[in-house]
Amino acid sequence: MKIKKSLYIIFTVIAISGIVLAFVGRALCVDHPKDYRAVQEEITVPEEISDVWVSEERIYVCYRVASCVNVYDKSGNFLWAVSAPFMRTASFMLMDEKLIIYNAEAFVYNVTNGEFIEVTPTKEIKFPDVDDTSSENKEETPRPGDVVFDWYTVSILDSNSTPNTIYSTPKWYWIFNFYLGFTVSAIGSLGISSVSLFEKTKAWLNIRGNGKITHREAKKYLLYIRVTSAIQLLCAIVNIFIGSTIAVTILTVHFVVAGVIMYNLIENLSCTEYEYRLMDFWKAVGIATFILAFLTLSFCL
Questions:
Q1: Residue 105 in 3-state DSSP?
Q2: Residue 68 CB contacts under 8 Å (≥ 6 apart), including other chains
Q3: Confidence category of residue 130, pLDDT binned at 50, 70, 90
């Protein structure tokens, strides 16, 4: 009993810590200067670098969630920065001497000095075909002199193709990385559901075969939770291999129906111990598959 309680506490702390770190990091990405019309000082956000563009002697370091761009020279000296309003997932493009930060709307800046030009619907901009783009960051095989980057570092390859760092963000930023936090939360959540499922399975096996389901409402509940558990497993598979966000709607409906209604109704049923044990087991299965399906939504992000 003490071991089980300790495991619950440990996994709960892990799950909550992951959620807090992930969403604090995302919140800090949103909380940056909002004056999109003005050239800004260097913008610091705890977000991984999403893209890097190179034009002449300037390097454009882009942050998708923060919807901002820091610009440096090839020696790593900061030049200027621009920040579009929060878009959740911004994209970036250099074309026709313009820097474009866009999603549904496109915020257009002068590529040389960051001067604001205009806001226009993205659909009105004619972007070049993929095959026509020739940005250095699109090279499949980096060569000496090319700019390369990872989550928190931008480097230039020397003559021996050895990366020399010209820009890096603080190493502690990884603590607030959304995907790391989500992974930590997933470990904690799956740990909680696994401990619960193990406990309920053990209790069910102790009385398995010693009774049968006679309560009509209990039969309905078991049918419902078995079907929804199968659907949740299907949602998890769809999330992982297809990435369809249709699972969001399915999971939301199930949370309202099962979490708020079904799981509360079961507590008021007058059932035998056998029926309670069996329903507890399937309830744990339902929770475990729900958590699994919910966590795999990260594949759709």
A1: strand
A2: 32, 43, 45, 62, 81, 82, 83, 84, 101
A3: low
Residues 6+ apart with CB under 8 A from 201: 281, 284
Provide the b/e sequence for 165-174 (b: ≥16 CB within 10 Å): ebbebeeebe
66 contacts 173 by C-beta, under 8 angstroms: no
Write the pLDDT tens digit of every residue in 69-90: 999 998 889 999 999 887 778 8
Please, which residues bridge with residue 105 across strands?
Answer: 121
Contact (Cβ atoms closer than 8 angstroms) between residue 210 and residue 274: yes
Angle (deg, nearest 10), helices 246-254 and 216-241: 160
**Other residues' Cβ atoms within 10 Å of the Cβ of residue 100:** 22
Q: To which residue do tokens 């297809």 refer? A: 242
Q: What is the token pair recorded at 29?
A: 């990405």
User: pLDDT of 255-293, one tens digit each?
Assistant: 666 666 666 666 667 777 788 888 888 888 887 887 777
225 token code pair: 């939770």
CA-to-CA distance for 244 and 238, rounded, in angstroms? 6
In the chain, where are the structural domains located?
A: 2-24+177-300, 32-140
CATH number of this structure's domain 32-140, picked from the four choices 2.40.10.480, 1.20.140.10, 2.40.50.140, 1.20.58.1610: 2.40.10.480
Q: pTM of the predicted model, to two decimals?
A: 0.65
